[in-house]
Specification:
By secondary structure, the chain is α+β, with helices and mostly antiparallel strands. It folds into three domains: about 130 residues, Immunoglobulin-like, CATH 2.60.40; about 90 residues, Immunoglobulins (Immunoglobulin-like, Sandwich); about 80 residues. About 25% of the residues lie in helices and about 35% in strands. It has two helices and 21 strands. The strands form six sheets. A six-stranded mixed β-sheet has the order 2-11-10-5-6-7, with no helix packed on it. About 15% of the residues are buried. One of its GO terms (biological process) is T cell receptor signaling pathway. Its main location: membrane.
Length: about 325
């Protein structure tokens, strides 16, 4: 008895669900869309939500998704129970579809491979034989920009402070820039932030901060759209301070003094080389003169030691050239 009753209930449910799904569209209806904009990252996929209300089978209806100024060339056109190939905006061909669930009143649009050009207003329009309704969905495309570039320059006015700069490009929409110390505490005072946009709508952000350098305290600059889309750079400001700076001496005077010192050393080295060459030349000439004098003296001494050919000594007596003994 109980099994038979359960079977009847199951059959009744199976019969009533298709009947409810196949209910005709009411004379009037509205569309339900998100209150705020829909955000996604560049290169990802996104669903633009749109449902008929009250919920009913929307398969017999016409569903048109288009940009606000492009009604006749929509991103997607569903008509006669199928998605039409034309007319469709070429930039969306192969990238759009309905998420499914038309029989439940879900007419949401699925957009693949989102680009920066896809951002903006989309209009969801649903038309029956007796009624039509439309609603707007706004799409924002988040583009994560470049890694922050940090640099340090000498701070004006002295006081031991340096000017730390952070810049990053290629963001959409406008990002948030945050300075933090090594403890993670946000630095709110003494900073300036500047945002500019290029023709493509991408935002460049830059900021500068006066900071007292330290050998252990680093700074971080974070540029972000959300916790998932952010870039961070860090720097140790003390590395960039001038270690050769002399207290009380201006940077220009120090550079001039350094240049003059180098010039003096170069001139001194050249003078030393020239003096050494001159001394070497004088020593060489003196040595040559001395060698000539010594050679001459040696020759003269040798001539004085050789006996004259007109005189010979024979057993202690003088003999002339004829061999006669004199005396």
């Amino acid at each position: 008895m109980n099994s038979g009753l359960c079977l009847r209930v199951l059959i009744l449910v199976a019969l009533t669900v298709p009947i409810r799904a196949a209910q005709p569209a009411p004379v009037t209806f509205t569309l339900t869309v998100p209150d705020g904009p829909t955000s996604t990252l560049s290169g990802s996929s996104v669903s633009l939500l749109c449902e008929v209300s009250p919920l009913f089978n929307a398969e017999p209806l016409e569903v048109r998704w288009y940009r606000s100024s492009n009604f006749h060339s929509p991103a997607l056109l569903y008509k006669d129970h199928k998605i039409q190939e034309a007319p469709v905006d070429p930039q969306y061909r192969g990238r759009v579809s309905l998420t499914g669930g038309l029989e439940r009143g879900n007419v949401s649009l699925r957009l693949e491979r989102v680009t920066q050009e896809d951002r903006g207003e989309y209009i969801c329009q649903v038309t029956s034989d007796q009624w039509y309704e439309k609603a707007s969905v706004f799409l924002t495309v988040n583009v994560t920009g470049s890694e922050p570039v940090l640099s340090v320059a000498e701070g004006r006015g002295g006081g031991g402070q340096v000017n730390v700069t952070c810049s990053s490009v290629g963001w959409s929409p406008q990002p948030k820039l945050t300075w933090r110390n090594k403890d993670g505490t946000e630095i709110r005072n003494g900073q300036e932030v500047l945002n500019t946009s290029d023709p493509q709508g991408l935002v460049s952000v830059s900021s500068w901060l006066l900071y007292a350098p330290s050998y252990s305290n680093w700074l971080s600059c974070t540029v972000s759209l959300s916790e998932e889309a952010k870039r961070e750079g860090r720097i140790l400001p003390h590395i960039y301070t001038a270690p050769t700076a002399v207290p009380g001496v201006s940077k220009e005077a120090f550079i001039v003094t350094l240049v003059l010192l180098v010039l003096f050393l170069v001139i001194g080295a050249l003078c030393s080389v020239i003096l050494c060459k001159r001394r070497g030349s004088m020593w060489s000439s003196s040595q040559k003169s001395r060698n000539r004098s010594e050679t001459k003296n040696l020759i003269e001494g040798a001539e004085n030691t050789v006996p004259k050919p007109t005189e010979q000594m024979v057993t202690g007596k003088e003999v002339n050239l004829a061999g006669k003994v004199i005396g």
